[in-house]
């Protein structure tokens, strides 16, 4: 079934289907390299800035207390570039490196996801329900060079860090500081 997207009269589902059909029929070429952050988000930001696309939020998050975070395409692009710089410069990550993020679905989860896409870093999401054994397995199996978590989940993460032979950096999302961790919000 098709539905309109943000009040736009064009049908998003039919556009996606027709795009992929045209690729399958050889009418469109698949790009050799595709990066969602630069090829889609940045393009939408440019279209909005030029007035060729109506302004809509790229990201809109609301928690149980009614707090909300709303970013335009331009804001999400800018923040994701900054976050990609944090990952590559402060954390020392390179294209192809792996990151395990054990976070609830807070705005930083999505921001880091887009930043990883932008930088070519592989993002492994983990939920707050993971046990220390689960976290340890993911770190070893993925050969992650960085782990990202918050203050609530840090004790479970810290309990398995001594056995993580590939880990080079630890990124903390939250207020304050934690020994041996980089603070994402301060670096951003």
From TrEMBL:
Domain AMP-dependent synthetase/ligase: 52-164
A cellular component term, taken from the record's GO annotations: mitochondrial matrix
Enzyme class, first EC level, given as a word: ligase
Keyword check for Nucleus: no
Record-linked Gene3D superfamilies: N-terminal domain of ligase-like
Catalysed transformations (reactions): a medium-chain fatty acid + ATP + CoA = a medium-chain fatty acyl-CoA + AMP + diphosphate
Cited InterPro entries: AMP-dep_synth/lig_dom, ANL_N_sf, Mitochondrial_ACSM
Biological process per Gene Ontology, one example term: fatty acid biosynthetic process
Keyword line: ATP-binding, Fatty acid metabolism, Ligase, Lipid metabolism, Nucleotide-binding
Protein EC: 6.2.1.2
SUPFAM superfamilies: Acetyl-CoA synthetase-like
Gene Ontology molecular functions: ATP binding; fatty-acyl-CoA synthase activity; medium-chain fatty acid-CoA ligase activity
Family: Belongs to the ATP-dependent AMP-binding enzyme family.
PANTHER family: ACYL-COENZYME A SYNTHETASE, ACYL-COENZYME A SYNTHETASE ACSM5, MITOCHONDRIAL
Protein name, per record: medium-chain acyl-CoA ligase
Protein's organism: Cisticola juncidis
């Amino acid at each position: 079934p098709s539905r309109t997207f943000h009040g736009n009269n064009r049908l998003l589902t039919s556009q996606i289907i027709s795009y992929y059909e045209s690729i399958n029929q050889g009418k469109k070429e698949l790009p050799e390299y595709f990066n969602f952050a630069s090829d889609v988000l940045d393009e939408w930001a440019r279209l909005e800035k030029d007035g060729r696309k109506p302004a809509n939020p790229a990201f809109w998050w609301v928690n149980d207390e009614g707090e909300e975070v709303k970013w335009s395409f331009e804001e999400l692009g800018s923040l994701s570039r900054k976050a990609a710089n944090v990952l590559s410069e402060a954390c020392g990550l390179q294209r192809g490196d792996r990151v395990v993020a054990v976070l609830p679905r807070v705005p930083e989860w999505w921001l880091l996801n887009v930043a990883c896409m932008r930088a070519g870093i592989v993002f492994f999401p983990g939920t707050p329900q993971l046990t220390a054994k689960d976290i340890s397995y993911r770190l070893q199996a993925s050969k992650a060079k960085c782990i990202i978590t918050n203050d609530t989940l840090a004790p479970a993460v810290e309990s398995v860090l001594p056995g993580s032979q590939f880990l080079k950096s630890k990124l903390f999302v939250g207020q304050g500081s934690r020994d041996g961790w980089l603070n994402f919000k301060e670096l951003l």
